[in-house]
Amino acid sequence: MEDYMIRVLTKNKQIRALAVRSTNLVEEARQIHKTTPVATAALGRALSAVSMMIALEKSGEKVGLRIIGDGPLDRVIAEASMDGEVKGFVGNPQIDIMLNEKKNKKKLNVKKAIGNGELYVRKMMGLKEPYESKIQLISGEIGEDLTYYYTKSEQVPSSVGLGVLVDTDSSVKAAGGFIIQLLPETPEETISKLESNLNSLGSVSRLIETGITPEELLDKVLEGFPYDITKVTEVGYNCNCSKERTLEIVNTLNVEEIKESLKEDGYVEVTCHYCNESYRYNEEYLKEHLEREW
Predict the structure, then answer these.
(1) Protein fold of 243-289
(2) How confident is the model over 119-154, as pLDDT tens digits?
(3) How far apart are CA 162 and CA 165, in angstroms?
(4) Looking at domain 4-237, which CATH architecture does it have?
């Protein structure tokens, strides 16, 4: 099955919702970064989230999500563009497997891996200055933290559900999620019915494992609320780095650092955090392309 995201609006104009199937996307990220299961779960949730968050924007180019914690995972970074391209990485991809012993011995403990910290949402608005806001993490579960972010920072009552199911061979068995938002003046009876639906939903990743589509997922979340699909977007892992783009990183180094690297190795090497692609620059190339005094 292909990965894709849908955005819908209920016919009563009271609820907007999004759902995504991101299994292939998260598995590709796992293979690129060689993440262990708990790192896969955290990164997969973030990637699933941004693939939907970008569709909530009316304009702009990209949405970035940064989660910086004091746990062993260090950080989770994810970014999505308007054309469905998604990428990300974690600070410590080789984190030891961490399980939540209190509730379910088989559940990966993303909360403990992230720890306490902050969540940042950055919106790149084309020619305008980027906009960034942050909140303190309330749980480290990512879905709950984004629920809090939308309600507090954007004043939009929301519910965010994210799931990543990792198989016994560490591959991604299922991944996806949803975002539900109430529109202004939604009556209490609608809120109560929606809360009842969410409480009876169960695990998002387990539902996706059964082959459920984003439409079928929202059929369950929005049971009793007919809706119209307003947008469908394919999503996939894609990094737009290049030798020319990555040269900007080299340009931040001082000349002495560059010369030292050239002397020791014969080149300057930069590796992209998002895709692990490495680029090498020899002295001739740098002198021709760097706008610096040597």
Answers:
(1) CBS domain Like (3.90.1280)
(2) 999 998 776 788 899 999 999 999 999 999 999 999
(3) 10
(4) 3-Layer(bab) Sandwich (3.55)
